[in-house]
Write a structure and sequence with these properties.
This protein is mainly β and 690 residues long. It has one domain: TonB-dependent receptor, beta-barrel domain (Maltoporin, Chain A, Beta Barrel). The chain contains six helices and 41 strands. β23 and β24 form a beta hairpin. The longest helix is centred in the N-terminal third of the chain and has 7 residues. The chain is globular and about 65 Å long. The N terminus is likely disordered.
Length: 690
């Protein structure tokens, strides 16, 4: 996303991929345009091979009726080890802008549901309070990035997915499953989800409005300004609903600004975001209390630069984030009420250089996390208390902080059929001790034939407990200050084949984790306690995609299909009796997804009326607790099937869409007894003023 140039107005066009080992390195720091590259139309979660760093390779697709897409631009951008498309050593799942438009989702969380190895556990509808995890892990074990900037909330992962960007702001979403510490920092225990936002190359104004079931109503606007060296985008969005069940109404406001300045040997990128939402939290954290309520606010700002000094490419960054959380166990009362404020300051610098034996990357990050709270942290003396903002007579009387230092070094070698990357991260956290612990890893990609790629990786990673894990105490929960950092070692194998109209992929993952944190009950009369296990996970993911219109040579008429299957088996390595697990042992065992995309009224250049159908079936392990007539009942989690239909009418300056979710109004639950909406209908329209 952060464009890097070393020569003004220098554009190199690749008509084909050269097999020379040095070919990719000759393009460093330049804008690279791929002339024509055959790719098939993908629907839900399509996979492109990218470099291992964020914003590594940007592909912007034109919407055309031809079976070959002409890629307008494939720009090698601000990565630590950029690499040509056909020689990358790792695999990232990429959800493109076109696929986001096809899905017609209202939230980022709904988009992520379409990925086979992503577990999205929704408490509130339409993106409110959603837990997102990767490959059998928990919501705390994923690192969320916004244009490469870590936006995780150290208070709790429940709030990390309160994104300050709306769907219309997104260019693509990158997902990497597996331990990723040496690439993305210490908190990337199970992988990363990186949201890349867009800045249009032309000045324009866009407007959209939507509304539908349960009194839902929303809208937004964006303004883009562009010149040869400076681009800016400002967007504002609002959404509200009465909710599908009692005490589930919410209001959400979002404001996001980003800019980019490009000079001969310098690129500056900056972003600032604001998100505020308050919502009824019906049984969100305990089925005993249906009248819970919560309000969250996030402020963030980040600055990033890119420059070159001789053969060395440098990329420093600086970011700040502040999160507020106000929670009431019983709405409009002080029972179980909490106030929290956490601040995160992060500074990093990274770089890379090429030499005769390949390319070497290096860098480091300092991240300081602090919290003021009415319950989380160490108690403060009365004279050190801090007044809660806008709350007369209320004070933060607890505080804690920690500083994390990460240093990394990695080296890559590119050969004709083989790509190799080895590296290590050194990590020290002030909340643990003064030791620098090492987390190594290796990624290998082998291309024995055109269209076929085999890959292997082994990586170690770690994660610090959240402040909630350590300190939270209430009528229903009790933290554990003795928790240690989670640690994992992950082995990943995979193969993918793509040729003409079909694409196949198969991957397997084995993960062994120690000190893996969960909240558990040891009896029916108990409260939840934070504790830790040793766990192993074995996963299998298979995906098949077919561009049937291309196979049948239908021209402008589109017809494509995708089928995926995800399987996970987990084993806990101890004999301690657990009556109820809240997160770790409550995982998805099977997940099957299919999608069918087809045109209804095809027009030229991808315009006209089209539809996408989605079917998802999943089975979750574990049980949940219900309270009926004063009795505590334990029920097994039940599988469910959902069918969605998305319709869209697309024209050059405007588009209309309809989202019909849960067509058969199936009653289902993602978490415990928190009910999810039945049939939901939303209509929307968007217009662009050039």
């Amino acid at each position: 996303m952060f464009l890097s140039k070393t020569q003004k107005n220098t554009v190199v066009t690749w008509r084909h991929f050269d097999r020379k080992n040095y070919s990719a390195f000759r393009s460093l720091g330049r804008e690279i345009r791929i002339g024509v590259l055959a790719v098939s139309t993908l629907m839900a979660a399509h996979t492109d091979t990218l470099a291992t760093r964020t914003d590594s390779l940007r592909i912007v697709k034109d919407t055309v009726s031809s079976s070959d897409y002409s890629l307008r631009e494939a720009t090698v951008t601000g990565s630590q080890l950029p690499v040509s498309l056909d020689k990358a050593w790792t695999k990232i799942v990429v959800i493109t802008r076109q696929e986001i438009d096809n899905a017609q989702c209202q939230t980022i969380n709904d988009i992520l549901k379409l990925c086979p190895n992503v577990d999205v556990r929704q408490r509130g509808a339409l993106g409110v309070q959603t837990d997102i995890s990767l490959g059998g892990g928990t919501f705390d074990q994923v690192t969320f990035l916004l244009n490469g900037i870590n936006i995780n909330n150290p208070q709790t992962g429940h709030l990390s997915a309160d994104f300050p960007v709306a769907i219309a702001d997104i260019e693509r979403i990158e997902i990497l499953d597996g331990a990723s510490a040496r690439t993305f920092g210490s908190q990337a225990l199970n992988g990363i989800i990186n949201i890349i936002t867009r800045i249009d190359p032309n000045s324009n104004v866009s407007l959209h409005v939507e509304g539908g079931s349960y009194g839902s109503l929303g809208g937004g606007a964006s303004v883009n300004t562009a010149s040869p060296s400076l681009r800016n985008r400002l967007s504002a969005n609002y959404f509200r609903t009465d909710g599908a069940v009692d005490n589930s109404a919410f209001n959400r406001h979002r404001l996001f600004y980003q800019g980019r300045y490009i000079a001969d040997n310098l690129t500056l990128s900056w972003q600032a975001g604001y998100n505020r939402q308050h919502y009824g939290a019906n049984t969100f954290y305990s089925p005993k209390y249906p009248d819970q309520w919560e309000e969250g606010t996030r402020y963030m700002a980040a600055l990033k630069a890119e420059t070159s000094a001789g053969a060395v490419h440098l990329q420093p960054s600086l970011s700040f984030m502040r999160n507020y959380d106000h929670y009431q166990l019983i709405r409009h009362t002080q029972t179980g009420e909490n106030y929290h404020r956490n601040d995160i300051i992060s500074a990093s610098v990274s770089g890379y250089a090429g030499w005769s034996l390949g390319r070497t990357a290096f860098g480091g990050e300092m991240r300081h996390e602090s919290i003021l709270s009415t319950s989380l942290g160490r108690p403060l003396d009365e004279d050190r208390r801090v007044r809660v903002e806008h709350q007369h007579g209320r004070y933060y009387d607890h505080r804690d902080s920690r500083t994390n230092l990460s240093l990394f070094l990695e080296h890559a070698v590119l050969l004709r059929h083989l790509s190799l990357n080895v590296g290590v991260m050194g990590n020290r956290n002030s909340a643990v001790d003064d030791r620098l612990r090492l987390y190594p890893g290796i990624d290998v990609s082998y291309r024995p034939a055109e269209g076929l790629r085999l890959y292997f990786s082994w990586n170690k990673s770690m994660r610090m407990p959240t402040f909630t894990d350590l300190y939270y105490k209430s009528e229903t929960q009790e933290g554990n200050v003795g928790l240690r950092p989670e640690k994992t070692g992950t082995l990943k194998l995979g193969a993918e084949y793509q040729k003409a109209w079909i694409a196949l992929s198969l991957s397997a993952l084995y993960r062994r984790g120690t000190d893996m944190i969960d909240w558990v009950m040891y009896s029916a009369a108990d409260k939840y306690h934070s504790t830790a296990f040793t766990l192993t996970n074995c996963q299998l993911t298979a995906t098949a995609r077919a561009d049937l219109a291309r196979l049948m040579k239908w021209g402008r008429r589109a017809l494509s299909m995708q089928v995926s299957y995800y399987y996970n088996h987990q084993h806990r390595h101890d004999d301690t009796f657990v009556y109820q697990s809240c997160y770790v042992l409550d995982y998805v065992r099977h997940k099957v997804q299919t999608s069918l995309d087809h045109s209804i009224v095809p027009l030229a250049q991808g315009r006209g009326l089209s539809a996408t159908w989605y079917l998802r079936w999943q089975q979750r392990e574990g049980t949940h607790i219900e309270y009926r007539d004063g009795q505590t009942l334990q029920r097994p989690n039940r599988p469910y099937t959902l069918v969605d239909l998305k319709l869209r009418w697309t024209m050059p300056r405007y588009s209309l869409y309809a989202s019909l979710e849960n067509l058969f109004s199936h009653r289902y639950y993602d978490i415990g007894t928190v009910p999810q909406p039945g049939f939901t209908l939303l209509f929307g329209a968007a217009v662009r003023i050039m």
